[in-house]
Amino acid sequence: MKTRIVLLGLIFLLFFCADCAAAEQEEEGYRIVINIPRYSLTLFYGDSPVKTYPIAVGKAAAQTPTGSFSIINKAVNPTWHPSSRNPVPPGPANPLGKRWMGFYSGYGIHGNNDPGSVGKSISKGCIRMYNYDVSVLYSIVGIGTPVEVVYGDLLEVHGGEAVTAYRDIYSRERGYRDRILEELRSIGLEGQIGQQKMENLFSALGRRKVVFAKNWALMVNGEFLTSDTIYDRTMIFVNCDRLNEFFGIKIGWNDEIATGRLRDKPVSAVWSNGKLYASIADLVPLLGGRLSARGSIEELNYEINFAKLNGGFLTSDVGSFKENPTIDIGLLSPSGKGRASVSRLEEEGFTSRVYSKAGYIELMHYSAINF
Predict the structure, then answer these.
(1) Cα distance between residue 164 and residue 171, in whole Å
(2) Cβ–Cβ under 8 Å, residues 266 and 321
(3) pLDDT band for position 366 (50/70/90)?
(4) Residues 64-81: what's their mean pLDDT?
(5) How large is the C-alpha radius of gyration of the chain?
(6) Is the pTM of this model over 0.90?
């Protein structure tokens, strides 16, 4: 009898340990979290985010399903099988793009033939990605990878500085306006925003995400960077610490000309409360890209694709992230000629990571890596 009890105990322990090992492996493995209102797909390894990608989601009339799923099938250069027409083979006319990863009956994560749709609620429920991004993701995740689709929190608080409010694209948030006002009140911003600007922000929120802030907000490729800005009715100055950190640049102060300086070029700048602020308009000719403004909601959007090398700004002459980002190899190797894809740079002794949602490529030369 004792022997039987011991054997049963051992069997229980074996199964228990096996379950623990499986759970531990699942916790440590890759998983995908899709946030519908934020148009984002984040790849996690365990609890650590690896990378966040921009996506398109289902329109209001064909909503992306929420819940816990997993990758159930995969295909390279998939054929599209619409219900009302003949199959569409791989190629430029195929809306599934270069990769398919199914996660639920008829729904999948895939590329596309209309990259301008990324960042919109426009699909019939599937998740669209840039072809480059979906190819990278496809190479990482396998069958069985968990996929969590959430209609995430619509508010993102940036300290006491600002609140990003995401559009309620599926009209699921009741009392959304009151909730925003309550959040602004809790961080002391409600009375800091003018009434007309406040109404303009709520009006715009019906079409797109907006940033509630006292000052002008700077967005880079549609993502909030800072609202620590100064507007003097002629130009908008931005906190240099924020700019330097994100772009990998060094805006300094030049005592001789009593203004800012970047790459030996003067940049209009002012000091305020012990912090240096630079004119964002002066940076565009030096860094590249395009700057636009929405005056009614006091929002600047800086559109720029750029590369950093060993943490420092390298160039904004970067090929589209949508298909195959490239860089002039001459910027990295004196003897190099022509443009090189990011994947080819590994042959030149570089590691790279593409952050398409943030709009930049991070390059690191092996010789600069500290082991």
Answers:
(1) 17
(2) no
(3) low
(4) 96
(5) 24
(6) no
